[in-house]
Design brief:
Blueprint (H helix, E strand, L loop, with lengths): L11 H6 L1 H11 L5 H13 L3 E2 L12 H7 L1 E2 L2 H15 L5 E8 L6 E8 L5 E4 L20 E2 L2 E5 L1 E5 L3 E8 L2 E7 L9 E7 L2 H11 L9 H6 L3 E2 L8 E5 L8 E10 L8 H15 L29 H8 L7 H8 L4 E3 L2 E4 L10 E10 L2 E12 L10
Parallel strand pairs: 1-2
Antiparallel strand pairs: 3-4, 3-14, 4-5, 5-12, 6-7, 8-9, 9-10, 10-11, 13-14, 15-16, 16-17, 17-18
């Protein structure tokens, strides 16, 4: 089945309800009879609203999907995935979807965020939301070319990213319309592959139509797979997938290891806190063990690879407890430490429910919450035993 295109982002729904809420209303009104059609609808909605504009206003994990969509820009894969998840989850709650964080096993400072969707055949697959521009014509309008590039305020224009072509920068220069093609993911600082000038905006858009392989292609789910929007898992464990290595020349695919997966997005985003430990665990054991099951809201993407029990007073528990910061959510704390030993209104308590061994000093770990977010933590001495001098674990 081919899906009919719509001018997402220009209709009255978006104008009267705000960008995000208007897009959700338009998605609910659009024809869809399967998860695959819903996926295409969301990617079209993103294409009609968003442009790639990395900038210094926010960090990669700072903004929510709603905020980024309302702003009309994305600064990378995390925001793209958050926007897709938020639109899909809000507009189509009957379909199963999860947000997924993964680190690049071949590069210490890179990773990729994707979406897991369960298809009509009940099998899960991954969606690369950064490729939303592949679903419609890449044509530009005159005002687009006057937009300041946030991370390069000396330049005005539009950036298009096509893996098979490169990073394309479109601008007005010396009275002409210009396209400059750089290496993929290396706009401005990579090798300049081609520069071409056009007399009119129509000529530029005609070139974009001819250069974009998706411009005249009927959009089917099989086409999305061939275009790289649908990514397969490496194996049945669903713990990794292949994606271009941003740190290697030529961007050869490399294993990306999944370490975070959510059916509801935590705010603040804990990815930067979890990734170092996930990388350390992977280096030691070949596994990243942070995809948990807390409250049914986190997707267990690695069957049979659950984290070993981590009791209070263990060195690992103490280290993780001391990493807790105000503002972390209850869902994140469960993911980090597991269910508490006891709950009393806004206080969660972790302790070993046994008598201390000879010479052992147990501890009591408490977390105070306000509005379901951490407000304070405390470690207090617990039961001790007579005999040799007790040791405090802190």
């Amino acid at each position: 089945m081919a899906f009919v295109g719509k001018a997402w982002g220009s209709g009255s729904l978006l104008a009267t309800r705000g960008a995000f809420d208007g897009a959700v209303a338009a998605l609910r009104a659009a024809p869809q009879q399967s998860a695959e059609e819903a996926v295409v609808n969301v990617l079209r909605a993103m294409n009609g609203r968003l442009s790639y504009a990395p900038d210094g206003r926010r960090g990669a994990h700072e903004w929510t999907g709603r905020r980024s969509f309302n702003d009309g820009t994305i600064n990378g894969c995390v925001e793209s995935a958050k926007i897709f998840f938020s639109l899909f989850h809000t507009a189509y709650p009957a379909y199963d979807v999860a947000y997924v964080d993964a680190f690049n096993s071949g590069c210490p400072n890179a990773g990729h965020a994707v979406i897991e969707v369960t298809g009509s055949d009940k099998r899960p697959y991954l969606i690369d939301a950064t490729r939303f521009e592949a679903l419609a014509s890449a044509r530009v309008k005159e005002p687009d070319l006057g937009r300041v590039v946030d991370f390069r305020p000396d330049r005005k224009g539009v950036i298009k990213q096509w893996p098979s072509v490169g990073d394309v920068f479109l601008e007005k220069a010396g009275g002409a319309y210009r396209s400059s093609v750089y290496e993929y993911q290396r706009v401005f600082d990579g090798k300049l592959l081609k520069v071409q000038d056009f007399r009119t905006l129509g000529e530029l858009n005609a070139w974009l139509d001819s250069s974009d392989p998706a411009a005249k292609t009927p959009i089917t789910f099989d086409w999305m797979k061939k275009a790289g929007l649908v990514l397969p898992f490496d194996d049945d464990s669903r713990s990794s997938f292949k994606y271009p290595n941003a740190c290697a020349q030529g961007n050869a695919p490399v294993k990306h290891v999944i370490y975070g997966c959510y059916r509801e997005l935590p705010d603040p985003d804990p990815a930067e806190q979890l990734e170092p430990d996930a990388r350390s665990n992977y280096a030691k054991s070949g596994l990243a063990v942070f995809c948990g099951t807390g409250s049914g809201k986190a997707s267990e993407l690695s069957p049979g690879r659950r984290k070993k029990a981590m009791g209070p007073d263990s060195a690992e528990f103490v280290r993780k407890f001391e990493s807790i910061k105000p503002g972390m959510t209850q869902e994140y704390i469960i993911k980090l430490l597991g269910e508490p030993t006891a709950k009393d209104f806004s206080t969660w308590t972790y302790y070993k429910n046994r008598m201390p061994l000879p010479g052992e000093q147990l501890a009591i770990y408490q977390i105070q919450f306000r509005n379901d977010k951490v407000s304070a933590t405390d470690i207090a001495p617990g039961p001790d035993a007579t005999g040799e001098a007790p040791r405090m674990v802190r």
